[in-house]
Specification:
The complex is a heterodimer of chains A (407) and B (87). Chain A has 407 residues and is of the alpha+beta class. Chain A has four domains: 74 residues, ACT-like. Chain A, domain 2 (Alpha-Beta Plaits); 66 residues, Ubiquitin-like (UB roll) (Roll), CATH 3.10.20.310; 158 residues, no CATH class; 60 residues, no CATH class. In chain A, 17% of the residues are buried. By secondary structure, chain B is mainly β. Chain B has two helices and six strands, in the order αββββββα. The N and C termini of chain B lie far apart (35 Å). The chains are: A alpha+beta (407), B mainly beta (87). β2 of chain A pairs antiparallel with β5 of chain B.
Chain lengths: 407, 87
């Protein structure tokens, strides 16, 4: 028999021994090479000690019925594991926690943006979100795609760096100077040309010669105020053949009426949802809607109200969901309602597509009803400034004039 | 220490060998426990006996013929056996 240390650390028992001549029992332990620890006297007839689980059986056999042995407690890693194995729910809980911990590490929790000066941070965040980088998104995103999106959106950004540290995404931007569109220098000769098709409403030349009359239709690129001014030698005795020309920096205001044709589409019938009063309630976890999944209604309306929306320390979003049974009905949309909608759409169009100084002069709406769709044709007449400078390049060798558009 | 003494110290398995430090005593070559109480522990080392006297004595570890005792130590005594008792 050899002394075994590992058996003691694996599983030991703290026991109480009661009886006469306790020293004889301890002596037997020495002879049988039973390892003991913490032998403490409580009284002359009672002592406590620790013994390995393996040796405990032998000790009990030696003690026979002469001594009363009571186990006070157990210890050791083997015993702890054995105890843990009995508590399977705890193991499942720990495993779930670890899995959850790992799962939350797959998402971006915080985005830190550095290096911006002129561009607003909310604007940058919005662009990043559109590109797929937002708080709560997965980490395995295409960084190059986001960078390209940033370069496309902001001309002034010259460099973008994105790196991930744990759950933190660090976005660094470097801004350069915004490219400025070059205008023709004040003293260089140029023409004023049309940048859009339209009917000329008014031309006020400050310098140069007017090239078209009011009411004339011009196409894009047509000269409206020319910078080429004819010169005639009026000195007595000189030939009229000596007619020549000079070049000036044409300047002036050109306003033109531009007709436009727009088409809007709307549904002919408006669908109405009327609640029957029957509802079921539920919760939605991170977008997984249980109430919607067990929805017994054929036609329903789902309303959600956010209760919890966290990204730290892990992504969790809980919504209260109400699924309400509804009945469907439809009625034809009136022209007045349509007019309101179309007018709003025209205003939106003008805001997005027309220059700031443009005025809407006339508009006419034409409704054509088909089976389920109403087509609204809009004729829009706008007053816009259409003149833009175009440099006149004179080839000195050939004496020919070349055009060079700087706009 | 002479070599002879060192050899005796290392290989004398039936003689008491004791290490005392503060409130701890380590007894080696423990062959038999003669007396065990809260105030006194006497062990037999094969040829001689060793007695540890003190208060609240506790055997911290008993293993491999070695006994580690802690408590308020007062005395350490060694006894021999009489030749006629041996017979």
């Amino acid at each position: 028999m050899t002394w075994n240390n590992s058996s003691f650390t694996e599983h030991y028992k703290k026991i109480k021994i009661e009886g006469f001549q306790l020293d004889k029992l301890i002596d037997k332990c020495i002879k049988n090479r039973i390892q003991l620890r913490g032998v403490t006297f409580v009284s002359d007839l009672e002592l406590t000690l620790s013994v390995s689980s393996r040796d405990f059986k032998r000790l009990k056999k030696m003690a026979k019925s002469t001594y009363k042995i009571t186990v006070i407690s157990d210890g050791g890693y083997g015993y702890a594991l054995q105890g843990l194995w009995k508590r399977k729910v705890t193991i499942v809980g720990v495993l779930l926690f670890l899995a959850f911990f790992y799962y939350q590490s797959l998402f971006i929790v915080e985005i830190q943006i550095d290096g911006y000066e002129k561009i607003d941070e909310p604007q940058l965040r919005q662009t990043l979100a559109e590109a797929g980088l937002y708080e709560g998104c997965k980490k395995d995103i295409d960084v190059n795609k986001i960078k390209i999106k940033m370069y496309e959106k902001y001309d002034e950004i010259s460099w973008v760096g994105i790196d991930f540290t744990g759950n933190l995404a660090r976005v660094t931007v470097a801004e350069g100077a915004k490219p400025v569109k070059t205008k023709v220098e004040d003293k260089k000769p140029c023409n004023i040309v049309a940048d859009k098709d339209g009917y000329i409403s008014k031309i006020i030349p400050i310098e140069g010669v007017r090239a078209v009359k009011d009411g004339a239709f011009v196409k894009k690129g047509d000269i409206l105020i020319t910078g080429t001014v004819p010169l005639r030698n009026v000195a007595y005795g000189t030939d009229s053949e000596n007619e020549t020309e000079t070049y000036v920096h044409a300047e002036g205001t050109v306003e033109a009426k531009i007709p436009q044709r727009l088409n809007f589409y709307a549904e002919r019938y408006k669908r109405m949802k009327t609640g029957t009063g029957k509802k079921i309630w539920g919760l939605s976890f991170n977008g997984h809607n249980l109430a919607k999944a067990i929805n017994p209604y054929e036609v329903c309306r789902v309303k959600t109200k956010n209760l919890i929306n966290l990204v730290k320390p892990f992504r969790i979003k809980i919504d209260a969901v109400t699924v309400e049974q509804v009945t469907l009905s439809q009625k034809e949309v009136k022209d007045e309602e349509l007019k309101k909608t179309v007018n709003a759409a025209i205003r939106q169009y003008a805001k997005e597509n027309l220059p700031q100084k443009a005025q809407i002069l006339n508009k006419s709406l034409n409704f054509s009803r088909e089976k389920n769709i109403i087509t609204i044709g809009v004729t829009l007449e706008t007053l816009q400034q259409i003149g833009t400078e175009e440099e006149i390049v004179v080839d000195k060798q050939d004496g020919k004039v070349k055009k060079d558009n700087d706009q | 220490m002479a070599i002879k003494d060192e050899l005796l110290f290392d290989f004398a398995i039936n003689m008491p060998r004791v290490l005392v430090s503060g409130n701890t005593v380590i007894l080696d070559n423990v062959k038999k426990l003669v007396l065990l109480s809260r105030d006194q522990i006497i062990v037999h080392n094969g040829q001689r006996f060793t007695s540890v006297v003190g208060k609240d004595l506790t055997i911290k570890e008993l293993k491999d013929e070695r006994m580690l005792i802690t408590g308020d130590l007062e005395q350490l005594q060694f006894y021999g056996t009489l030749q006629k008792n041996k017979d």
